[in-house]
């Protein structure tokens, strides 16, 4: 009579059973989109493997040593995973509900394709190339579509849109809850958005004006002193733009002084965030990896993220302490957190820490990169620089500094800002949305349910159908040459609808303030022998676009 050991041996040596189990697993997981549950599934697999090895060693008789037991179980696992993976790939390539959409073959199989592209240059450039090759709908991942058709904008972003934010936004929710930006539930988002709208609405923005003016004044004065020290022939303008936007957002966000303009270097935390960008540009294609690392307790793997969380917690506590002084119930000047925190509540809700992080992440690099690209375009187009300077000087008269509130009506300044945002949108590849279970119909094209969509702003903004002469920097298209805009709806650097950037007006005010005052004080050009191309060629797509380095020559105006 067969013993338990014999039965086990027969089982573990039967590759067909494991191959069949691989197929069953694919069948079970296929409809549940399991990638974001890998943090639970992978440890389960590891436990099963360990259990099977121990059973083989102690109960089975086919292996003479522990190593042999490991080997036998590994060969069973190879049959299981080999079949499972082959089944997944065949399904994705030929039977998936997106099979009719064109795109690179490898992108059908895995998001590793996007990782490969990212390692070789900005992802959004490849997306634009793919749209030129395949048209408005491109399959960019196993269950992912990039849609470059302005008719899809209301369906994906409008107030009545039935899509929700995609699972990407959940990547670290389990640690500290969701920030405004990462809240997927529509009702919860509406609630949170009310406070944020007050924090960044017109009357609050006026209260923040003195802070913007202070930081812009400091920027101009620091750059002037660098010129005096003989450094004006080669200044890394991309760094200065990043110091500026970081100082502004720390200050307006939660009264945090980074002092980067003063020091002429990045604060430690900001430097670490910056250093993590290459990893972010890859992980944003594989968000389940972040969940896996953080949920399986491998904190070392996500050290940067945990440090940032710790920093944000401490920064909010410090702000609270200052506000708790009897003479100061609130910061002397209001900041964004004044609207998000209950000043009398001794505790800081966890999701406010997440909000503090989003203030830095959403408010710093987006603005810094836009400013850098704007300076780049002014260097590349000296005539436009001259024309804009004349406009600004007309408003300034004898003054060498213009307050941000004096800059609301300079049409050509608006034109230059818009044209920069058109050619260099900060969210170049778009934002992730998930279609409702019943799917969507875009212009007669049916998009199945539970599909992840992206609307690539870089591609839309560079479409000749929407913006004739799309690759030329022509600020006049926004005012005196309206024929150069065929479809204004396709311009959405800040998105549109209920999730439109809540900080867009703050960003515009920063852009106006820096641009106008730079032009009042300096002539700006590329460093001798340089064309500034690294600003585009070394840019990174990290969900937000991070510009490459820009070195400039600054000459003070007489
Ligand atoms: C040129 C600068 C900026 C650009 C181009 C920009 C662009 C965007 C875009 C495209 C989104 C939508 C993201 C998504 O749905 O995933 C967004 C959202 C957001 N932005 Fe900005 N942004 C800029 C500056 C700022 C600033 C200065 C702040 C200040 C705190 C800010 C705070 C936010 C927040 C909190 C959200 C989430 C809004 C929500 O989900 O309701 N952004 N931004």
TrEMBL record:
Keywords: Heme, Iron, Membrane, Metal-binding, Monooxygenase, Oxidoreductase, Transmembrane, Transmembrane helix. The keyword Nucleotide-binding does not apply. The keyword Oxidoreductase applies. Its cofactor is heme. SUPFAM superfamilies: Cytochrome P450. Pfam families: p450. CDD domains: CYP67-like. The chain crosses the membrane at residues 38-60, 66-91. InterPro entries: Cyt_P450, Cyt_P450_E_grp-I, Cyt_P450_sf, Cytochrome_P450_monoxygenase. It comes from the Eukaryota. Heme binds at residue 501. GO terms for molecular function: heme binding; iron ion binding; monooxygenase activity; oxidoreductase activity, acting on paired donors, with incorporation or reduction of molecular oxygen. Belongs to the cytochrome P450 family. PANTHER family: CYTOCHROME P450, P450, PUTATIVE (EUROFUNG)-RELATED. This is Cytochrome P450. It comes from Lophiotrema nucula.
